[in-house]
Amino acid sequence: MGKLIFFLITVLFISIATKLYKGQWSWFIPEYNMLPEDKKKEYNKNKLCRAYSYCMIICALATFLLLLNEFFPSNILFAISCGLFVISMFFLIFWMLINNGGKK
C-alpha cells in the first residue's frame, strides 16, 4: 500500500509542477492567492509559478527516492530523500529573498 501511495504522490507532484511551469494552476501558491487583486498585479505570476514548479520537481524526486526505498531498503536513499525535501524548501526561501518575493 505504501508503494502505491508514494507512486501517486510522485505523479501528483510531477503533474502540479508541469502545470505551474506553464504558468497555470497558480492557485497552488497560497501566499499569492491570499493577496487582493490590486496587489497581485505587483507580482510576476510566471516567475513565481516557475520557482514553485522547481520546488515541486525536487519534491517529486524525493518521493520517487522514497518509492525506491520501498523496493530496495537503504538508509542512504532515505537520507537523500529527506535532504532533497529540505533543499527544496531552502531553494524556495532563498529564491524569495533574492527575487524580492517574485515582485516585478
TrEMBL record:
Keywords: Membrane, Transmembrane, Transmembrane helix. The chain crosses the membrane at residues 51-69, 76-98. InterPro entries: UCP037672. This is DUF3784 domain-containing protein. It comes from Dorea acetigenes.
